[in-house]
Amino acid sequence: MTDTLVFYSKPDPFELWRDALSPLLGDSVRIERADEVTDPDTVRYALVWMPPEGFFARFPNLELVINLGAGVDRLVARNDLPDVPVTRLSDPEMARMMAGFVLFSVLRHSRDIPHFEAAQVRREWAYRHPRAATEISVAVLGLGELGALAATEIARQGYQTHGWATGPKDLPGVTVHHGDEALAPLLSMADIVVCMLPLTPGTRGRLDAATFAAMKPGAAFVNVSRGEVVDEAAMIAALGSGHLSGATLDVFASEPLSPESPLWTLPGVLITPHLASVALPASAAPQIAANILAIRKGLPLANSVSRVRGY
Ligand code: NDP
After folding, report:
1. Which of 72, 227, 230, 244 has most Cβ atoms within 10 angstroms of its Cβ?
2. SS3 for 151?
3. ipTM surpassing 0.95
């Protein structure tokens, strides 16, 4: 019998994913775009990024939902998610792309690039003596698949690197802190704070006014995870008062970021439109296919999402 894998994503090109998955799945799994499904009853697997409300109700025989990305907050928060296993991507190339973006952000702040960009606009030769990486401390909040690689890459560059997670971890060159009480002391000594926490009921709004107040005066802030982890008004206040020296922001509470947002013009702030990392068909297709083949054989799945934890 031929099963169907239904694909839905606005930003990701269907043809590239189909062509990467087809040879791995063989003839027994048909891959169809959501708006071209021939027989909804044969749909057993869904590969989706932010499908519309009511999407899952069309497919009564779903056995597996695969999130076409790493962050699952929008998927697990839905009321209409069927009671079947949910997996996400855990792709080394995606982690590498993210680590590169985070490293760029850390270098941007540690090498005073916002200062030189502002000076260039004024045609000013504004020499500022560089600091050694070893003098600069970086705190990475969230040490999951993406956070752990980013933290170890930062450590490899010689920065004093700290991380924060729910429990202890062993990462080369990274001093790992854990638990709520460890956060404020960690923030008080970090020159650059990088947010890589997933959005869950426990992290929504976690970086609030008190958290920004706990950061070292003059610290820089980087957010590449989800905008809703941050109290955006509190962050804007911390940037506006000069308590934070700048920020590199890839994610926002509301996307696209409104043209009215004060963030666009705050000094030292770089805005990028949610692209720190993306799923890549060539490297992610094998794990998607492996999970589909595993569920067909009743074998354990990789990269399962815990609905209870929310990540
Ligand atoms: P993971 O789910 O693998 O890891 C999450 C990490 O956060 C874990 O280390 C976990 O701790 C920690 N954590 C979760 N809750 C808490 C808490 N309450 N207190 C302290 N630590 C906590 O996430 P990834 O590394 O794969 O990805 C991080 C996020 O990046 C994604 O959730 C997604 O939102 C975002 N993302 C953004 C992209 C972009 O382009 N901007 C692209 C892809 C992802 P523990 O290890 O102890 O469980």
Report:
1. 230
2. helix
3. yes
